[in-house]
Prior knowledge:
alpha+beta; 7-stranded mixed β-sheet; 5-stranded antiparallel β-sheet; 8 helices
Amino acid sequence: MLLGNPSTGQLQPWTRRQLIGGIVMAAPVAYSRSLAAIVCQNDRGFSPPEDGQFAVDAAFPGGNIIVERIEGNTIYLAQDLRDTEGWWFYWYFRVRGGNGRELTFHFTNKDVFTCRGPAVKIGDGPWSWLGREKVRGTSFTIQIPPDATEARFCLAMPYLEADLRRFLNCHIDSPYLKVVDHCITPKGRRTERIHLGCLSGRPRHRVLITCRHHACEMMASWVLEGLMEAVLTGPEARWFCENVEFAVVPFMDKDGVEDGDQGKNRRPHDHNRDYREEPIYPSVRAMKDFAPRWSEGRLRVALDLHCPYIRGRRDEEIFLVGSPFENIQREIDRFSKILQATSADTLPYDPKNNIPFGVEWNNASPERSFTFSRWASGLEGIKLACTLEFPYACAGGKVVDIASSRAFGSSLGAAIRLYLQMTE
């Protein structure tokens, strides 16, 4: 953001704290790459804007925005690419003090909206889609209700550590759930590994699930939550808890998730290109140490949950990524038929949408040889190792939201059960 220098009349970058005409302008302290507009600050942190003012910022977990300028009720802003190589599309910001205003948000770095427009949360209400019809070019306009002191806007529907904590607290007394430290991140955060199902004795099968190798791919986390719920309380819960131990790492890039990074194409390479002889990320190092020891030849399924590109024909379908290994691809084909059947009543999955190896970006490039699914294909006992891509907002013409994502996660759990039973 640029401010006028009162002595020279020239534009200059704003500092963390400048007093202009009696109004304190401040960049967020905790998330220094975010910019705020007309934000009041006191010794305890950010306070609500004064009457007649509104604030736009990303100074909260998962936040990502750069506010370039404000002209009346039009805010010009862009996603923060930080250490991303090239262009990507994640953003998440809040507005405080905008109640009763009609605000227009104009993004200056291309179209960053899904097929259903931006996700919106008014006050304490639920997340919902604003609708693609409300998007005009790279802008959207919304009337903030008079009683709404805060509104949040995001690429899709966020899933952060707080959401995982809410889920875990609902099952805190379950004997079929255990949470351990997978690793400590470079910024000192705890990366959880969750064990579910058959935790006593020796299970017949083991299943390894990962998510958020790319920090911004939030809708995959709602699928994972639905899957974990199914393991603990769904129709398959008893069978799972007698026969299968799941190990789940919900946030492979925990720092990226909480800091609001894109994560995808992070320099020098992202987490899903780090399965090398010497990984640079603690979560990948920990995974390469843990999984081979834990497997004991009983690991049957390794599944990595992702979201694809923001929109497009294939990117608005659920699909599996094909393998270069014939034995693994045969199992992907078997699992695809099962998943198609179990998901018939939730979001549609059709194997015809899978991307075979050698097609488009699923190729033999050197970087792709360092992905989780390629590495997991060589683990002892493994049969099925693949990536599932889950869209941000549309799947087969149906709405992707929190409820439908969780429901698909339950369908995924049913497919895993049937697949494991077929392997016995």
